[in-house]
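Researcher: For the record, we're logging two predictions in this thread. I'll number them. Prediction 1 follows.
Model: Prediction 1, sequence and structure:
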Amino acid sequence: MAIREIRVIPDPILRTPCDEITTITPAIRRLVQDLLDTVDDPGRAGLSANQIGVGLRAFSYNIEGKVGYVLNPVIEDKQGEQYGDEGCLSVPGLWYKTRRADYARVHGIDLDGKTVVLEGKGIMGRMLQHETDHLDGHIYLDRLEKSERRAAMRQLRGER
């Protein structure tokens, strides 16, 4: 349908927990298509609905050539640990080492109301946690070590 503009911090929608999708309507179907169209670009791993200005629990992903989506995702398992560079379309130009579980599994539904389970390690595990955080009103900078977070915030303000 459309490639949508990405909201960037300090847009308040990025800090607002998203509402559960209770009914699959034509508007929800358009939202999913817009999420898929917008994430389908090289370098984009995931995109949550609030990043395009919609406060509903949905995200799309583009990992290793697989593009998909999930509605109402909930993390049901995390294991292990990874510590690596992470960035965000809503925090352009900043990459910081972020601690995440190595493996994550989420469950949600698709547009037919059927259960969807997404899981993975490495970049897939990181993306599942990152996008679910967005839907809960958090950005990856919230997960940084205190000194790193201060440095990131200074960089965002254009300070040295």
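Researcher: Logged. Prediction 2.
Model: Prediction 2, sequence and structure:
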Amino acid sequence: MTILSTEQILSAFKNRKSCRHYDAERKISEQDFNFILELGRLSPSSVGSEPWKFIVLQDPKLREAIKPFSWGMASTLDSASHIVVILAKKNARFDTPFMLEGIKRRGVTEPEAIEKTLAKYKDFQENDMQTLNDERALFDWCSKQTYIALGNMMTGAAMAGIDSCPIEGFNYAEMNRVLSEAGLFDANEWGVSVAVTFGYRTQEIAQKARQPQEDVVIWAK
């Protein structure tokens, strides 16, 4: 395994800025974009749930269809090399087939072990997180996991010299409607969490002001 220096990693983080102006003529190679998607797929998630799906919007007609309500990426829908909409699982209760599949995927197959794991998940959702009987809270929990994948995809892209921008600036009801009606997902099972654009910048981007290091609290005895 290749170990990057801290300087190399920090350089990529400092160069990563939210890109609002992409070079429409310059496209990310299939190999490089598969690399970005793989970073999302390999991301960690709470209890190994991996409650995400990645929709890559390359169809110009579909991009045009979401323009009226996608103000956060209005300037990049035509120029971004790739646009990804990340979905979050709906109603991911401990006792659903979705959670059971995740448990088995991690190698837990013995009935007794499965039962113990599900009981632990039930306690986690019911008492620790208090999300079990709240459909919106369960969806928000899954959405939080998608942001881990989002961050990894953007950071990895930056380390490969590819620009990106996270997008929440759109009407969620309309985005869910248009994409589900296009047959891209079952709206009963999945919902839009966040979007992200990728490509190559056409101009330098001003460095954003950051919180000072003094705002980081370290408590140690």
